[in-house]
Design brief:
Length: about 280
């Protein structure tokens, strides 16, 4: 796009992810905004973090950072029963007052809570923009030790928030693999996408039912951020075309490619997006 205004605004916490290789910058907004950039959108991020967090991987993006004593910090531990996630610290909350007025005019606004930091009523206050929602952070809760669990029941505001979004993306794990939740929420949402890792995604469109789309096979190196990258690609393509089915095919291609690399390096390049567009059409 020709001017330097923000065209894709992501609202949510950047994170410090504790890994065996050391702390890494993460968070849905990081992966999604960089994906938007690869799709030729000028991205902006509204977030909160401590002043010592290295944000250099997001250099060139329009950043609005709420001062915070802490950075939201996650640690994932893996064992025989799968992943156990812990939240070790939490940054300041994000309300509509944290969003600069010029950013509220962004054509696409992505609400991306990770730890209940985005005000629950924010979706209802955004008019005139395409609002994409990845609500996993509103479904998370944690105990005194920081151990995270995810539950649909933890998000009582779901019906209202779903109704105000143009499209919603969440994973099958976010709903505990309970398809009755997806079917219930699909009655409120205009477009609801359930990602299913290597199995692709299922797209519910109000009045048109649901369709499943297979993802291309890839050798998985690291799935972190794949859902966020998928969501950004879906939101932008759907905003541009109004075609949820074509958007699912493109997002599957981009998301599958992302698992072949680790960390923010999993974000596609501009050239890779072009390749994915071709593959989505062929597929």
């Amino acid at each position: 796009m020709a001017d330097n205004a923000v065209h894709y605004l992501a609202i949510g916490h950047v994170t410090k992810d504790l890994t065996p290789a050391g702390p890494l910058l993460g968070g849905t907004v990081s992966f999604a905004a960089l994906t938007a950039q690869a799709l030729d959108y000028m991205p902006g991020v509204v977030t909160a973090c401590a002043p010592d967090l290295d944000l250099s991987p997001l250099a060139g993006l329009t950043l609005s950072v709420v001062p915070s004593a802490e950075t939201t910090t996650f640690e994932n531990l893996y064992g025989p029963e799968g992943r156990t996630q812990f939240i070790r610290a939490q940054a300041a909350p994000l309300t509509v007052s944290a969003v600069p007025l010029h950013c509220l005019r962004a054509p696409v606004i992505h609400l991306a809570p990770l730890a209940r930091e985005v005000a629950a009523d924010l979706a209802a206050s955004l008019s005139g923009s395409f609002v994409g929602l990845t609500p996993q952070g509103w479904m998370r809760q944690w105990d005194a030790a920081g151990r995270v669990t995810t539950s649909a029941e933890a998000w009582p505001e779901a019906p209202e928030a779903l109704a105000h979004a143009a499209a919603v993306v969440l994973s099958v794990d976010d709903i505990g693999r309970d398809w009755s939740v997806a079917e219930r929420w699909a009655r409120y949402a205009r477009v609801l996408v359930i990602t299913q890792s290597a199995e692709g995604c299922t797209v519910f469109v109000r009045g048109q039912g649901a369709r499943h789309f297979l993802a291309p096979p890839q050798r998985e190196v690291d799935p972190t951020g794949a859902g966020d990258i998928f969501a950004a690609a879906f939101f932008i393509n759907y905003y541009e075309t109004g075609d949820p089915w074509a958007s699912a095919r493109l997002a599957n291609q981009v998301g599958a490619l992302s698992v072949t690399r680790a960390g923010l390096a999993s974000v596609p390049t501009h050239e890779e997006v072009g390749y994915c567009r071709t593959r989505a059409i062929v597929g």
